[in-house]
Structure formats: structure tokens, C-alpha cells
């Protein structure tokens, strides 16, 4: 049911409806009819999301809209409520993998859940109208207060960007919901779940290590700049290149040649690391 809830939220985000994951999950799990379809439909109704659950024959598949939800059979003959999108003659399941029409029809249970966003009370994602302005003011205040040179400021700014990407790469840990990130991370050859795969060793913790690395950069750079020891910081960073460059190389090798999937967020972090490296070598 955990995966089904995540798929429902993806579908809602596509319809520009944003619900709190924890609250929505609690409402479904505490419903008397859990884990039936009724618990899902009732919870959507409680949140003023207009929805319809109908049974469709295989012959009527072409009459369905371009996106919908249905139960499909997954590993272990278990059924999961999946978010389905039509793509020409294929079907994109949960934004991750495509199946042919024949494969799809053999795995679904003919029950379709549809959302009517026009009849729903749309819950827009918490706006960030002034986020960039506040971030700019904060960075300017940091620059003035700590008397940071432009060279150090650029390095600090890149560290902040890397820190944010690392946080987003661990979005399930922090409970972050973003339709933009879901779109970026979905597809046949893209995936942002490397950090959740416990079988991949060091690479599986790329987001964790990046989070610690960039946070350490931010704290140490501000501290050393305030004490007038910027040179010490950059000397340490040049030494760390002995570790950073091989990690970048291995991460790229792992994504491109081993699993043959690209982690867009990881690539973003790698680009930031390379930009910082170029600053260090200038």
C-alpha cells in the first residue's frame, strides 16, 4: 500500500492537486475499509478530490483518458494501484517503465480510478513566490557579515546548491513532494532512487555523502572566513580532490555502464563538484 499511496500522489500532482503525504497516508491506513479501494476513494472524497471508480472492458481501453489509475499485478502476484499514462501504443507505469498494450491488459484488473481536477478543490503546492528573493537577501547578508571574497562566495554558493540537490535526492527521507522532481526522475533511462538501493554499496549512499560534504563545506568556509583563514580551507579542499575525483569517475561509470540509468540529481551534484574543482585549480 505504501507504493500505491506514492502512485496516487503522482497522479494527483499531474492534476495539479497536492496533498500532504503523511496526512494522506494516515487517513487511508486508519480507514475502516483499509486496504480496499473504498478506503482510497473515501479518503480522496474527504480531501475534496472528485474521483470515479469504474470497471472497464479490455475493448474499451482506447476510450480511457491519457492518464488514470488502475490495479496491476506486480511481483508475488500482489496488486498495486498504479499511475498509468498512455504513450502512443504503450503504457507508462508510475512514470518508470513502459509496457505494451498486450502486457498491460494481462496485468490489470479492469478497475479504473479517474480524477476530475475541474470538480476538485485544487490544493496548490505551498507557493514559493518570495523564496528566491529571500535566498538572495540571505546570501547578500552572509557576504557582508562574514566579509567573504567573491572567490569564496562563489564556492559557498555552489556548496549551497549542492546541499539542496543532496537533500532533494533524499526526498523520501525528508518527505519532500515535488512534481518537477518526479518528472525529472522518471523515465526508462533515468532514476533518482540510487540512494534507496541497498545493494549498490558506496554509490547507494551518494546522496548521503554529498549532503555531509556540502554541509561541511558551508560550515567550515563560513567559520574560517570569519577568522580570516580562507587559505586553510582551500588548501584542505585541494587535498580532498584526491578522494572527490575518483568518486565522480566511479559514479559516472556506475550509472552509464553498470546499471545504464542516469540519476539526474547525481549528475547535478557531479557538475557542481566539477565547477568547484575548476575554482580550486584556478
UniProtKB/TrEMBL annotation:
TM stretches of this protein: 130-148, 154-174, 211-229, 235-253, 262-281
Keywords: Membrane, Transmembrane, Transmembrane helix
Keyword Glycoprotein attributed: no
Domain of life: Bacteria
Tagged with keyword Plastid: no
Name of protein: Membrane protein
